[in-house]
Structures are given as C-alpha cells and as structure tokens.
## 1
Amino acid sequence: MLLSASVKISSVKDALAALLKDYEVAAPVSDGANLLYSYITDPNDVVFSDQLPYKSPKEFLLPQTEKILAFGEDSAEDIQEAKKTVIFDVRPCDLSAFKRITDKVFSEGKFKDGFYMRRRKASATIGMACKSLKPGCFCNLRGIDKSYSTECDIFLTPAGEDEYIAAAHTPVGCDLLKSCFRSVPAAFSPEPAELSETLEICSEEKDVFEKVNWDAMSASCISCGTCTFVCPACHCFDFKDKGSVRYRVWDSCMYSAFTLHASGHNPRAGKPERFRQRFMHKYVYMLKNIGESACFGCGRCTRKCPAGINARRVLECIKAEAAGGSDG
Amino acid sequence: MTEEKLSIIEALKTICEDLFSKRVISRVLAFTEGEIKEIPVVSLITNPEGLKGLKWDESCNKPLAKLLLGLKPKTAIIARPYDARAVVMYINENQLKRDDVFIIGVGKDASDFPVFDAFAKDPSPLQSAREPSPSRGSLDFFLAEIDRCILCYACRQACWGCYCPSCFMERGIPDWTPAGVGREAKIAFHLGRTMHLAGRCVECGGCKTACPSGVNLKYLIDSLTQMCYEEYGHKAGMEEGARDPLSDYRCDDGQPGFLE
Ligand code: SF4
Ligand code: SF4
Ligand code: SF4
Ligand code: SF4
C-alpha cells in the first residue's frame, strides 16, 4: 500500500464527477432489469450496493466486439488508441481475474496482445470490498479475500457508517486519490483474510479427462454459453471478417461451433466434450500453464445458468470423481 | 413449502417410483432442489434414490422438453402444459416419437395438456406467459430491449423450436449476419428467430427466463402467435399431426398472408 486515506461516502459521487472530466468511467448501473457495469455520464446513475453486476467488467479491457484490422475502402482510423478509463466498484474476484488471468494471457505470454495491453494501460481500477457472499459466490474457496485486494489502483473498504478507507496501491492510484477525492490521511491495516481451504482439482490431467462422467455432468446443460459470457476469467475469442474489416468477437467453448474445423470435423464433438473443456481449461490447463485456475468464485455462472448448474458443486464432483479409484 | 406443493411432489414421486420399478422408463427429467433456494436444478434422474430431491414450485419455470432430444428412450418428463405442447411439436416435426416419452403433466386441468400419460393436479400453476404488446413508443421499447441483449443466444438454446444443427446466425454461406455485436446483428437475429417461431411458439417463456440480461422480446413472437390464432385458429402443439400455418400451403387459401 502506497497511501491510505479516509473518504466520506457522500464525496464519492463528487470524485466520480471529477474523474469524468478526464476519463471514461464505467460503474455499476441498473438498466431496469439488471445491475451491470456501464459507461456513465452522470455519477447519480451509479448504484451503490453489495450486489455483483451480472456480467463481469472484462468488456472494458476485452470488448465483446472490436475492430482490429481494416483495408481498402474501410479505413483503420477508428482502431484507435484506447481511451483513458476508470472502472469503478470492481470486486476482489474480478480484480484477480484481470491480474492473474487476462493480464497473463494477453500481455505476459509468448504472444502479446496490443489491443488488450493498450486498454489495460489506459485503465485504472477502483476496487471495493464485498460485505457478504451472494448466493452462488465461493471466492472464499478460491483463495480470494472478499474484503480486501491489492490488485487494483485504489481499493475502498467501508469503515463505519459513512466512510471508506481508500488504499492506493499504485502511483496512478495515489494521483487519482489526491487529485479527485476529498480525503484525509488515515492509517489502515486490513483485517486478515477469512479463507477456507482452496477448492482445487489436484488429480492428474488424464484422470480428470477420463474418470469423470462428463455425460452425466453435462446432461442438463443447454449449451447457451451464458456462463462464459458473464465470467470474468473466460477470454476465448474468434475472428470475423466482414468486407474489408476484421473483427475480434467473444467466443464460448459451450457453443457447438467452437473449434469447428472448416472440414466440418470438430474435435470436441458434443456437449459433454465442450462441458469438459470449460472445466478442464479453467481448473486444470490454466493451472498447469500459468499457475492459476481461471475461476475466482464470483458465482455469476451459477446465478445465471438456466439449468441451475452450480459451478462449485460441479467442481467438487469433478474433484471427487477424478480422485476416485474406479473408472467413471 | 405449502402443503399443496408437498402433496404434488409426493404424487410425482409415487408415479415415478412405479415407472422405475416396472422398468417403463430409464430416467426422469425434472427439477430438483439445489443449494440456492431460488435456483432449481434441472436433473436427469436415473434411479428412485434420485427422486428424493424433487422440487416443484413457481421457481421451476424453465421449459424442459428440449433436453429430450437425443436421449435414448424412454424418458419421463415432469411437464407443464408448454412442455407437453413442445413434445407434440417435436412429434409433428419428426424429432421425437410419442412412445419415446412418458409425459407426467402437472397443471390446473388435464385439458390444458394436448397429451399426457399421467397427471397431477396443481391448484396454483404458473400464470400463462403471453406478453402484452407495447402499444405506444414500441420502437423505443424494442430498441431498449435490443440494446440490453448481449447476443449470447441463450434464448435460442432454451427454446424447444430452435433445434437446427446450425443456426442461420452461424452460417457462413450465405452470411446473414452483420459483423460484431451491434444493433444490426441483434435485430437480424431476433427478427429471424421470431419469423422461425411464427405459429410454433408454445408460450413457455423459456427465451425470457433463460436470458441473462432480462431481455423481453417474446412479445414479438407473441404477436405472431396471436395472429396465427386469429387468422387460422391455430395454437402450436395442441394437436398431434396438425400442420402449422407456415408449413402448410393450400391453393385455396383465402389468406395468403405476407406472400401476397
Ligand atoms: S467460472 Fe463462474 S464462479 Fe468462476 S470466475 Fe467464472 S463466472 Fe465466476
Ligand atoms: S450457463 Fe449453464 S446451461 Fe448455459 S452453457 Fe453454461 S452450464 Fe450450460
Ligand atoms: S438470451 Fe438474452 S442476451 Fe442472449 S441473445 Fe437472447 S435476448 Fe440476447
Ligand atoms: S419462442 Fe420463447 S416462449 Fe416461444 S417456445 Fe421458444 S422459448 Fe418458448
């Protein structure tokens, strides 16, 4: 922590107004049906609550559609430099997904993704503590402290009735805290995290692949892809060419056209194989490849699954079946 | 849980246990209790043990019939009227055989079910889900819903009627879709889907209940449902062997509709 200060809750809207002068600001708003992160123009639209917006804020770093190339008559002019953005009220689960998954995948591997990196560099994140676990949340089993995170520029922790303690973790965070928030320096030492033992698949890849009864596990899934769209850590994408423009668009392993070859062959022939891919990619391959599972227990997939598939339960079943002696 | 609902669950258990013991069925497609009270779990129960967790209340409002596709016979489905209608549609569209499914209807009145093999009375069933059409400012309403849509296709996946192995939205030749996830693509998808459901919608509301974004474009389909009823007296999935207005052509048709 580079700096800590106390901020009156009533002054946060003023701070957002100040930020709006120089930045695009994304924050939780209600669209009537849902709470979601959206660009705001008026700080009064921001919803302050303990609820988690139904989609993660990943779209501000990895938009659902982005133009990445154009030639001929279409110009590449609007493939711009990323806009300066502040993402407000990001919870510890999502902050970890940015830091430990998308950052690693798009900016630390063999292939660097300029589009993501430009946006990430131009963005600041203001984190916020969760007061409670919402139905479906299991961040506590995924090594995430719901009350505190250092994986952001500024982190806000409620302190008493009408104030937050703001902890700035980066130079950018310090500048923002000093320039946009009315704050009073205050000492802060976060409470130790209340974590449970991490729920992780420990078996060999081969055992997970072969022993788990994927047919039964995926039987009620309707391949809707909702789970991957709302997830902060899912990041698969596809390309689509239209005329002389190439777009990048989100893809989902739960779709039947995922990994479909031009020949018509698909190495993941059906729903069980796709379902297996979702869970193995998250909890086995990612762990092996980058040392981190691509799930932080935000519970969004569980809350939105039309079939009522509970990610934590599935994870527990996979763990048990893969560790079991007999062939599933 | 109310007494009423508990007795329905008991009735369903008895029916299913009997079916299992007589080896009539190999599984039951039903809702079971999950860890989160408000979120029922869709389950394929393969033995009497599994019936313990059966759930039946207003939260069990997702259509189930689509999961019957591709299952080896014979499956029992705990069906609301719309599921029974969807089964009839599958039979009419040659996707299922009547004998492959054992329909356990749960509803207010057995006459709400076009077909069933067993029936349990639910004195307080779900209300029918037809949407009133927004009369004023409907373009604004439509666009607001379109803007909320994230084009995930969960509505399509939930719908009994969207079972094409490759949806028009995913076809490359010809490529129907505007690139990207803008208004154009979303409008193309929703209007395309609406037309494909004309006279086929069984009013399950699955497209609405599956949508993560709370989009309500079912009213578009409802207006076609209404039209098919008014013009042709047709209600989808109410009769085995019936032809739908859009798959039936008669030379003496006095109302050629939009082909005119
Ligand atoms: S897999 Fe589910 S619980 Fe885990 S991070 Fe993704 S949406 Fe959240
Ligand atoms: S949200 Fe549920 S039904 Fe939809 S693809 Fe994911 S697991 Fe399957
Ligand atoms: S389920 Fe909802 S968000 Fe997804 S495509 Fe359908 S209307 Fe759009
Ligand atoms: S269009 Fe919607 S309401 Fe009609 S059958 Fe399909 S999912 Fe059900």
## 2
Amino acid sequence: MLRFIAIRLAQAIPVLFVVATLTFFMLKLAPGGPFSAEKSTTPEIQKQLEAHYGLNKPLFSQYLTYLGNVVKGDLGPSFKYPNRTVNELIGQAFPVSAELGFWSLLVALSLGLSAGIVASLRPNTLTDYIPSGLAMVGICLPIFVLGPLLVLVFALKLEWVRVSGWDDWIDRILPALTLGGFYAAYIARLTRGGMLEILSQDFIRTARAKGASPARVVLRHSLRGGLIPVVSYLGPTVAGLLTGSFVVETIFQIPGLGRYFVTAAFNRDYTMVVGTVLFYAGFIIVFNLLVDLVLVRMNPKLSYE
Amino acid sequence: MSALLRVENLRTYFHTRSGIVRAVDDISFSVGEGETLGIVGESGSGKSVACYSLLRLIPQPPGRIESGEARFGDCDLLHCREEKLRAIRGNRISMIFQDPMSSLNPYLRIGEQVIEPLLIHKLASPNDAFDLGVAALREVGIQDAAKRMRSFPHEFSGGMRQRVMIAMALITKPELLLADEPTTALDVTVQAQILELIRRLQQEHGTAVIFVTHDIGVVSGFCDRVLVMYAGRVLESGPTAELFYEPKHPYNQALQRSIPALHERGAELHTIPGAPPDVTQPIRGCPFAPRCEFAEEKCITSEIALKEVTTGHATACLRVQLGEIDLTPAAVAGE
Ligand SMILES: Nc1ncnc2c1ncn2[C@@H]1O[C@H](COP(=O)(O)OP(=O)(O)OP(=O)(O)O)[C@@H](O)[C@H]1O
Ligand SMILES: [Mg+2]
C-alpha cells in the first residue's frame, strides 16, 4: 500500500509541472498586465513596478524563476495585494472555503445518500418518484438560481437568516444548502443507480433466503457495492468543495478562495492565479488518491497493483 | 411418513408487459421428513419459480403468487406474516442456487457469509459461530478452513463456492433444503462431487431436500420421488424407480428416450419434436398435447387434473387415466 501511495505521488509531480507551465503561459497570452488597470500610474511607475516584480525580464527566465520558487514551496508575491504573498492569501482564504465545503459536503452526503437509498428500495413507486424528481430538479437548477432563491425565501421573506456574510454559524446555513443541495442531487442519482444495480444481483436473493431483514439486506449486503460509484465521484467533488466555489462565495459574500481566484484572474494577478490552480490541482490529486485507497478497501476484487 | 411440507394449488404468475406469464400454474405436491423430492423439467418449465415461491423470493412485481397454500408445520409459507417467514428462511428451510458465481456476495468474506444464518437466527454467539463456520467449511471439504474464512468469493473456484453455499445452507441444520439446480453451472467431475456431498450431508442430518434439475439422469440415483414439470404444471409424479420403468405420461416417456445414458449403445436417440407452449397464452387441456403422438380431440378440449393411477404414482395424461394407453416398456415392446 505504501508503495502504491509513493508511486501515485511520484506520478503527481509531472502533472503538477504541466499544470503550472500551462497556466503560466496561458496567462501571459492574455492581454493586459497586473498594473495596466491602475490608470493613475504613470508609465514610469509602471516600469518600476514591473522591474520590481521581474516582469521586464524575458518570459522564459520569468518562468524558470517562478518554477524554482514553487519547488521551494514559495508561490511568490501577489501582484495585486502589495506586501502579501500568495501563500499568505491562500492560507487566509482556504480555511473559509474549507469550512463552507465541509458543511456543504455534510448536506450533500446526508441528503443525497438517504434520498438515493430510499428511492432504490421500491423503484418506480411514489417513494422513488419523489426523491428522484427532487434530485432531477436539483441537477437542473443552477447554483446561481438556487442561491438567490433561498435568499429570497429564507432571508428576505421569512427573515430567518441574514442575506449574506460569514460571521455567525447561522450564516453557514444558506451557502451550505445551496452548494450542498446541488451535489446532493448528483449523489442521490448515483446512489440510486448503484443500489439498484446491487439489489438486482443474485446474492441479494441469497441474503433474503438466509432470513436477513430488509435493513440487513441494505446495510450489510448492498451498501458497500452500491456506494462505489458515489465514492468514485467524491474524489474530485470533495477537492472542489473544499477549495471553494466562486459562485456561492460571490452570492453570499464569503471571503473564500474561489472569490480570490476569480478576482485574481481579472486583475492578471499572475502568481495568485497559478498558485491557486496548483493548490487546487494538488488537492484533486490527494483526494483522488484517498478515494482510490477507499475503493480498494471497499471492493475486494481490486488490489494495489 | 408425515408430510413436512404440503403444497396445494400453487400458482405464480408474472405480469409482464408482453402478457401474463403463467410460470407455475396450479401445482400440488408434498415432501416428507427426510425425503428427497426431485423436480425435473425443461428450461422454463417453472421449476425455479416454484421453489422461490415457497420462500416468497420471487421478484414482486412483476411476480405474484396468485393462489395456493404451502403448509410447513403450523404455518402457511405463502401467506404468513413476513417476520414469521423470515424466521423460517435460512433457519428451518435453506436454499442453494444454480449459479455459485453470482450467489455469494463478492464484497463480504466467506466466513462472514457462512455464519450469517447463525447470527441472524441467534443460534450461536459470534465466537461460537466462527468455530461452527470453520467446522461447516471443513465438513464440505474445504482445505485450510480457518484460513479460508477470511477469503473473498472471487478467490474460490465455482465448485468451491458451491461447497460454501452448501455449508452456509446447512449450518443451521434445516429441516428442508431447496436445491435449485446446484450442479448445472459446474463441470461434470465437480458435479458428481457436489451431488455426493449433498447426499452425504442430507443423510447425516436427516434433512429433506427438494432437488430441482433439468437433468433427469441426475434424479435417478438421488431422489425418492420425482415430479415432472412442463409449462408450469406437474404432468407426472411418483417414486423414482417407477417413473423410470413405468412412465405414465407420454412426456415422461419421451424424456426417458432422449437420455443417452439410459440407452444401449447404438439405440436410436429420440428428440421430442416441437417446442414447449407459450405460457403467456392460457392453455386448455393438456399442455403437451400439440407434441404428443397419442393426443386426441379430448386431450385438448377437456380439463385434466393430476390423478393417482397406481399407489403414489399420478399422471395428468387423460388417456392413461382412462386406461386407453399403456406406456410401460413391456407393453410398448409387445405392441
Ligand atoms: N422475473 C421474471 N419476470 C418474468 N418472467 C419470469 C421471471 N422469472 C421467471 N419468469 C418466467 O417464468 C417461467 C419459468 O421460469 P423458471 O425460471 O421457473 O424456469 P426453470 O424451470 O427454472 O428453467 P431453468 O431450467 O432454465 O432454470 C419462464 O417462462 C420464465 O420466462
Ligand atoms: Mg431455474
């Protein structure tokens, strides 16, 4: 198993390298620069700024310098927030996104799994149509519609919660429901599909022939196989949830990584963009690895090859 | 011999989009304590559905038990409460299935599955259950049983998995074992071993067995009595030897002629012309009539019930019942 993890982490290095390189050069292809938006700066000051950050050097030498710093774990200075490093900014914004992601994941898993399991127990009856229908709605409803909708009802009409902000625990509710609701819909569909597949297998009949109760049939004999599609899906999903959702963070004014990232892209804050992308890529790699480890434990036919 | 299980007028239909499949259409039979009853019939004749119906294991919908009664002790298996039936399943009545490759849960360890009936029915503590599981695996001839408890099904061959199924089914010492073609999916040498194993364990434990097979040859050395099923009905039933040597239904007679092993070398091997009827259509009269060389007008027009013609030997052939034809080999040869 350790060998498996080591190999996978070694494989991640070239992936991260390619990601860093591609993002770096694509950004440079985009018109404008980090200081062109600030109309007040004179050309001289702009030149000075560029010299300060090394932007006047040849492109390839900028790239090598950047890469050298990244290897040392230094994602460079932010071009937009003077005197702040990208490491600091990520360190400040990531916990916020991670907390939002955690609550959203909780919502997504609890709603998604229970809806999916209930739906699979009696396919094509009312107890299937209702959760499946809700899941369909959840999938079709974009986050930028669901979020404002929830705000409209629970914040503006009922006044149970605040419209936006990120101070109290009560501020967590709507964002988590918005972000988690969308993923819950997906998880419900995956769970239902996976469970239906398992419940139609011969070995379920064997379990019933042994006198197993319906609860035992589901919990002991079906869940492990039925949840495999969900777990596979969770790898990139959890990484995405924890590293922030731009849409939800914008709707609810949450100072998370997603918002920093998009602001950085608009401002051509080169280092911030590449840094966030690398951070995100690293997360995806780690979570995919975790998921694969879990899958091997869940499915005895798999092994660490 | 008192009856352990008495089935009356069992009817199981599947309500499918292409019509009502009359998979089991009014069958009655009984099994005595410790007795082995064979059920033979071609593919699709309703043998499996009849077995599954007894433990209410058919998929519902589309399946439905339309009528009947299955007396087992003080309980009607077809109509008793779900909890009551669950207490019987895997405890007093166990089942083994046709395909050992798909009938074991691939996600659970062998040991866990083998001892599960003991735990479900609270017949042993988890610790004792483990030891009983090891003993059960050893009894069905699995080497290194204690170690094998931790294996997963995919690490076993088909024959070994069927042994595991048998160990699992018999671990609660059931009164009745339903064996649905337990050897069909295995190769011939393994088949013989598994049959031998079932027979030995059955004799040791005094278990009654309903043994389903489409291979009439397997029945002869194994069963006390046999039912011959065709298109969801029982056409003939009787003691095994009589069924072979004194067939009382043209279908059974035709079946006998189609078995190579029962014939002298070089003798002509029969195949039955035609195909079994479409069970989505209601059948009037004898379902075998369209393929029967003895069929007459009345075979199609009258309702025919299974009737005992000699002690313990019943036939659903009207003309045999009326004494119009005699199918015993001696009579056939004398013609
Ligand atoms: N789930 C189902 N839905 C619809 N029809 C079914 C279903 N299960 C069985 N049948 C039908 O019931 C009839 C009897 O099937 P059954 O499985 O009992 O046959 P069998 O005698 O066991 O044959 P085999 O030797 O192939 O196992 C067949 O016509 C089959 O198509
Ligand atoms: Mg069958």
